[in-house]
Each structure stands twice: as structure tokens, then as C-alpha cells.
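Onboarding guide, step 5: your first structure request.
Type a short instruction followed by the sequence, for example:

Predict the 3D structure of this protein.
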Amino acid sequence: MMIPTLLAMRDISRMREIITVMTKYGLGGFLQRIKLSYGSADESASGSRYMSTPRRFRMAFEELGPTFVKLGQILSTRVDIFDAEWIEEFEKLQSNVAPIPVASIDELIESYLGRPMGEVFRSFDSVPVGSASIAQVHKAVLSDGETVAVKIKRPDIEPVIQADLRILTHLAGLIESEIPEVRRYQPVQMVQYFARSLAKETDLSVELRYMQRFGQTFGSDPSVRIPRVYPDISNRQILVQEHIGDTLLKDIRIETLDAPMRTQLAARITDTLFTMILQQGFFHADPHPGNIFIGSDGRITLIDFGLVGHLSSTRRREIIDLINALTRKDQFTMQYVLSNWAQGDLPDENLLGADVLEMLLNYEHTPVRDLRISQVINDITQIMRNHGLTLPGDLVMLFKTLITLEGVAKRLDGQTELLERAKPIVADAFKERSSPEHILRKGRMHLQTLLQAADELPQNLFRLSRRLQKGQMGITLDFKRFDQISHQIDRAANRLTMGIVTAALIIGSSIVMSIETGPKFIGFIGYLLAFANSLWIIWSIWRSGKH
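The system replies with C-alpha cells like these:
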């Protein structure tokens, strides 16, 4: 087995475990391809040989624990990379983690609070009402009689996550180096994005700040509630928030609700998310039925803000332009937006335009009210895949959120269409763009930028002139994959050197064997060494050709 030298010694046992589990599920061929395997590639569990590759990865991730489960859940959002079979398997990932032992709950919470529990809680239910891979939630009553929900992080989970992230970073580097067809998806960058996302999710103080921000945004909206938080008794390991006594949407039998209520709820949830996305650029990125409470009066409450998306003003403008282009069947605007989204090499504009036009022609006789956003997203991501393009991380999260939102809205009211609900917000955005106030504000910003550039121009020209006079102008060349080219040259030079040494051994041994009085055993040893070298060279050439 090859153990990466860049990994700390404390990670070696975990690396062995990862390799063992992946081999167990018949993924030895994948490990061999990235040159990280031992034993046979066919060494697998008896039942796994009949499974599809996506299912093998899903089962391996589940056995490897919380970090890999979270990774699979993030990969399930990459509809621009994986086809439906992979997405379906990744979406099945669940963490089978036992709750924190009841006997250690009190001691754990006191260590998180830094004081006795009796000073904060009048009562505390040690049995969790919800348990996940990173944290679990308990019901409690504060000393002032307020009922709260207490989210506590699992003890000692961060060292395990950090070790897994170090290993995943190394594995991503191997994948990027050894599998050319996936380099365009930038596996190392994906792991870095995942690590940042996981760092936020494991820091409960980040979730607290998110809830405070959303609470201020919707504080005056009587139809939407964000649980109140208690920052004085919350930190990185514990989050105390208002207890919601309503019913989770996932626990409601939809057929028992009357039609007007179902329509109202679907519209309210959809409008709330679109307000977050298109107006604020800051949205709840996991609006599934288990994160939405429904009150008897129809008020909705959003919980679990561990996963939150951000969109810049530029990105929001592109989303609005895209929705507007869909409603007007505007090929050129849509093509322009998709070109801006493309990462890496620029696409062939003619081919991209042809695919965009074909997609819009498929929608030509479909009214906007009948246009499903999931179908539009699937078509867009299919175009991106066909052209070898990848989506930025913020758009990946947005698309996954919209698909989840559409599923919730359709479950409540089959007539609700997200694009139709988005039209008023898009219209308001275009109206705001064309307002004199907006034009004047943008004009002032651009003028200020031009004035600043003009003010710095003489100084920049002076610096350029001095550099030219001193011969300090340089050109930086960025050779992509130069390290890999150097590695290939190094391996070729090693084989050439071994070939020369082998030839010298054969010639020298032949001379020694031809001398009657010479030490013939030395010549025999030389032949053996030459034979061994020849086998190594043949194996090395065959292996490099295979990879």
C-alpha cells in the first residue's frame, strides 16, 4: 500500500481504514487508478459486485462516517457534474450516528457553558428530540421559565473532521493528477469549498449570527418567523434558541389541509425564499420539510440555518436576467449569462448558442406558469456538462435549493410554479434598475472609480517608467500542470538511466564471463541484476501506458 508522505503520521490509520472500506465495496480499481491501493482491485464484499458504481460509493461513504456523508450530500448538489443516478444515490446518504450517551450530557453541557447547568436551566430533557452527525437538539426550560431548544455539538468531532479533510485534500490532488478527464471539475477546489462549508456548519456561533440576521430581515413579517436566539448562553459548541411548538411540515398529512391553506402555504414558502435569494442574496439553503414548521394560523417558521447561501449583487442580477430571458425566450441574454458562469476555458460561443436556442425552442409553446424550474436547471446543467463547463459553488447551492423548494411547493400545491411566483420580484428588480435613483447611484459609483483611476494614473506611469529604466519589467508565465510535466520527464529520465545501467551490466558481465581466469560469479550476479532491471523497465513502461 502506498502511504502519502505528506500526511501526518496520526492520519495513517485513518487512511488505511478508508482504503480498506473502499476496497471492500469494490472500488479497488478506482484506488489503483489514483495509485493508492494494495492487494487486488477485485477484493470486495460478495454483494457489492452486483451493485452500480454510484451505490458502491454511497455505501462506502456511509460506513466511513460523518465527514464523508457530508461530502456526499454536497456532491448531490453538483448536478452540473454528476448524472441522475449519482445524484439519486448521494441524496440517500444518511448518518447512522448514535446519540450522545445520556449519562454524559450534563457534564458536556456544563463544559460548554463554563458554569453549572442549574444556573441556566430549570429543567433539561436529556433525551434528544433530534440527532444528526454533527449536533443534536434537546428541549429545555430556562431559569426564567422560557422553553427553549438547545443544539449541542458532538464532543471531539472536530479532530476527526480535520483528519478526514487532510486526507480528502490529498485524495483530491491524486484524482486531479491521475484522472485527466476530471481535472476540469477542479477536485482540490471542491474539497476546499467543502472544508469551508463544513467549518461553518461545525461552528454554532456562525449559525447564531445567521439566525440573528434573518430575524432582523423578517422581524416585521407576521407570516414568517425565525426562532429567537440567546447569544449570552450560546457559543461555538452550544446554540440556545426559541422552542417552536408548531408542527413540522414533514409530519403534516397534506391531504388533511384544505385547498386554500395548501395554496397559501406553498405561495408563502416560495415567496419567502425568493425574497431571500433575489432581493437579499442571503438564503436558507436547505428548505426541506424537516426544516419548516407550520402554525395553525398558516405562519411558517424556518429552522436549522447551518447551511446558508450567499449571492453577490452581480450574481443576483445575472439570475434576474436569466429568469427574464426565460420568460421572453431571449437566446442571447441566456447565452451571455451562461458564458459568464463558465469556469475554466471559455466555451465555443457558436455551439453554446446553438444548444441554448434548442433549449428555448423546447419551451416555445410552454407558458411560464407551466415551466418547471427543475427542468430548466436540468437543461442548463446538461448544456454546461456537454461543453465541459462547471458552475461556481454559489450557483450550485442555489440550484439545489430551488429544486428542493420546488419539491416542497409541489407537495403542498401541484399548481404552484416557481418561475411564475418569481415574475413580480423580477419585474420589481427591473423597475428598480431603470429608476432615476438607481441610475444616478450607479453613475456616481462609476464616476468615483474613474476619478480614482485618473488620480493614480501619473503615479502608476512614473512607477512603470522607473521599472523600464532599471530593467525590472518581468513576464510571468503560468504553465498549467507544469509539476506533472516535470514528474513525467523525471520518470522518463529514470527509465533511460536504468536502461543505460542495464546495458552496462550486460556488457560488463559478458566481458567478465569471457575471461577464463576471471571471477565468473560476479558476471553471473551482473546478469541477474540486468535481468531484474529489464523486468522493472518493462513493468514501468507498461504501467505508464496503462495510466
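Each response can be followed by summary notes, for example: The chain has a mean pLDDT of 82.
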